[in-house]
Predict the 3D structure of the following.
Amino acid sequence: MILLSDGSSVSPAGAKPWLDMLVSKGWQVEQDTLRKGNLRFLLASDLSPIYEVFERKVYYVDVRDSTVVDVGAGTGDSCLYFAMLSAHKVIGVEPDPSRFALAKRNLLPNPDLASGIELKMECVRSPGPSTISESFTLGQLVASISHPLMLKMDCEGCEFDLILSDYESIRRFDVLVFEYHPNMVYKSFNRLLKRLQYDYQLNIVAGDVMIGIAKCIRKGGRG
């Protein structure tokens, strides 16, 4: 168990192996903080995404001077990663209150990167009537953005809903990088392939057709 300075702890279930892997890559533990260079995260953060994002670089794309919409921002790791890649602005959306609070705390020790990040504790939903009060559609979000480039999604199945139900908003992005979970929504990954194939070149970055990460680059666009 990893004890933090405020008396809380990181659960041993899955945390220790990821911490060991991060330390092997040059990350250092300083009290309740994980540090590499000028980048800092609280140890209470999800450690596996930090490894996947910063060491395996599963979300890498050229985002210099562009806008990134991060649906499922978690504890802020991917938002900080895109800011580190010199994105003009990162809009992070995370509906879970505890993850959102931790994401905000992770921005504090990274002020230079945090200045270009806007966090929203809301849900992104498909168009149509909704009973969720704290929510907006992807179309409503991108309407205020002059040139969105990249959409990252890690939202436990909602990627199917957004791609299949709000494709006109999806098409405004030059690059999509998303985790897909067919079994969570009882839909085939091939449905996403058929929807995206005319506009995007799709590659599986990690995993297989059952679960993984896909990167889609608009045909003729940059990636």
Remarks:
- Residues 1-56 form one domain.
